[in-house]
Amino acid sequence: MELIIKPTEACNFKCTFCSSTDIDPKKAKLLDHDYIFKFLKRYPHTRTIIVNGGDPLMMKPNYYWKIIEFLDKHNLPATLSLTTNLWPFLMKPLKWKELFNHPRVGVSTSFQYGGGRLKGDYSDFTEEDFWKCSDAMLEHVGYRPTFISVIVEENEDTVIQTVELAKKMDIVCKVN
């Protein structure tokens, strides 16, 4: 079994295809750990906790350490799988390095060509930006994360380019 959580709706990006773009970070709700722990007690064989958002890195690392402590304390098998744009990691890799290197934690990201993926200043998140994030993960965590690509009408002509990028990076890409 997998549990999908959204610890916050806040995001540092302004992607045109995402509902989190219009949420004021000050008003974004935070998912209380008690809900997660109650679920894990009821379903102790949960294998993966998939963490979406907003962006999971809008939370402090301590939020995830608390989940790991609970898993360890109760001898539960679950791992954390964070899907993040990695921009906060690129800006402060040492803040996230220990967590990302923990054996219970896996990280994936997202990227697609076109103008829909926007950083907080509304500038495009470019292939160059994506390489920087991926290179930082390789340097500090030891691997390049897999990525998901959202294909919409405006960028449907880039599907092959996206697959070729994944091949060049020697990683898996999931095309949505």
Report what the structure shows.
By secondary structure, this protein is an alpha/beta fold. Helix content is 35%, strand content 14%. The chain contains six helices and six strands. Strands 1-2-3-4-5-6 form a six-stranded parallel sheet, with helices on one face. Strand 4, helix 5 and strand 5 form a beta-alpha-beta unit. It starts with a strand and ends with a strand. The model has no long low-confidence stretch (mean pLDDT 92).
What is the H-and-E element order?
A: EHEHEHHEHEHE
Shape field: globular
* N- to C-terminal distance: 22 Å
The structural class is alpha/beta
Number of alpha- plus pi-helical segments: 6
Largest sheet, described in full? 6 strands, parallel
Radius of gyration, CA atoms, in whole angstroms:
16 Å
Q: Please report the total strand number as a whole number.
A: 6
If you average the pLDDT, what whole number results?
92
Helix content: 25-40%
Contiguous low-pLDDT stretches (5 residues minimum) are none
Classify the beta-strand content into a percent band.
5-15%
Strand order of the largest sheet: 1-2-3-4-5-6
